[in-house]
Write a structure and sequence with these properties.
CATH architecture of the largest domain: 2-Layer Sandwich
Number of domains: 2
Strand order of the largest sheet: 10-9-8-13-11-12
Structural class: alpha/beta
Radius of gyration: 19 Å
Number of helices: 11
Largest sheet: 6 strands, mixed
CATH topology of the largest domain: Hypothetical Protein Tm841, Chain: A,domain 3
Shape: globular
């Protein structure tokens, strides 16, 4: 059985990665002042944050159209694939995975499997890359998802946002949390709740410097006793220089960890806003 690997644009893969590993990337729409854009197609990170600052209304995100999914699956079938494993961003952020699951029996003689990554951005991207490598080696969907489940159990992440207003307006946090964050001028540290998988406030720190230092403490505590190599990712919105500086400091402090730099594209940037930074980590996918 040949397995196609599909993901959405919030995995933030490079074109070289998706091309080399035959990964299908479905763009997620972003609506800015009534105009719909496709993330990664006609709306890139470099221009998005300028548009975000100039937008008259708060941007919103949508789902890929059902017809687009069906067209993709039909094409994959015609290309000789028997199955598609679709790795989507967390179901607590988007309903795209649920939509895919509902289409599982729509294409005759072609199986569709929806996999909830329970996260997003480049951390999800690492799961997608691992899945694609395994698929190219002939692994089954069951074997791939078993590996993804094992990797997903090792993942943790903390986001430091400059302002909670975007998350509040997008419905990801309560208005009360946004109000407190604005009044006290704090830099909230957020994470995915391990039980509900919703984005929740973890701590509120009085400056970005202190918030990043606290995130480093959490990272150090989490990786101290693990018996496997760690792959970590520093993620930024429109503050690349600050992210590069932080990653250099982290690499000097934790030389045994492999770090990479990634970004919040338009879909996730819509909710986190400008000035956000994050640190995510997992077991190195190459070690499993």
């Amino acid at each position: 059985m040949t397995v196609a690997i599909v993901t959405d644009s919030t995995a933030y893969l490079t074109e070289d990665e998706s091309s080399k590993l035959n990964i299908e990337v479905v763009p997620i729409p972003v609506i800015i002042d009534g105009t719909m854009y496709q993330e990664g197609v006609d709306l890139k990170r470099e221009s998005f944050y300028e548009r975000l600052a100039q937008a008259e209304n708060f941007p919103t995100t949508s789902q890929p159209a059902v017809g687009d999914w069906l067209t993709l699956f039909e094409r994959l079938k015609q290309e000789g694939y028997d199955e598609a494993l679709v790795i989507n961003l967390s179901s607590t952020i988007s309903g795209a995975g649920q939509t895919v699951a509902g289409l599982a029996s729509e294409i005759p003689d072609f199986k569709v499997h929806a996999y909830d990554s329970k996260l997003t951005v480049r951390i999800m991207g690492q799961l997608v890359l691992k899945a694609a490598e395994m698929a190219q080696q002939g692994a089954s969907v069951a074997e791939i998802t078993e590996t993804l489940d094992a990797l997903r159990e090792t993942i943790d992440e903390y986001f430091v946002v400059d302002d909670l207003q975007n998350l509040s307006r997008g419905g990801r946090l309560s208005n009360a949390s946004a109000l407190v964050g604005t009044m006290l001028k704090v830099k909230p540290i957020l994470t995915f709740d391990p039980n509900t998988n919703y984005i929740v406030p973890f701590e509120k720190v009085r400056s970005m410097k202190k918030a990043l230092a606290r995130t480093e403490q959490l990272f150090e505590a989490a990786i101290t006793d693990v018996d496997y190599p760690i792959h970590a990712i520093v993620i930024y919105s429109n503050n690349e220089t600050q992210a590069e500086k932080w990653m250099a400091e982290l690499q000097a402090r934790f030389p045994e960890v492999h770090f990479e730099l990634s970004y919040f594209g338009p879909v996730i940037g819509t909710h986190l806003g400008a000035g956000s930074l994050a640190l995510g980590w997992m077991r190195d996918p190459n070690s499993i």
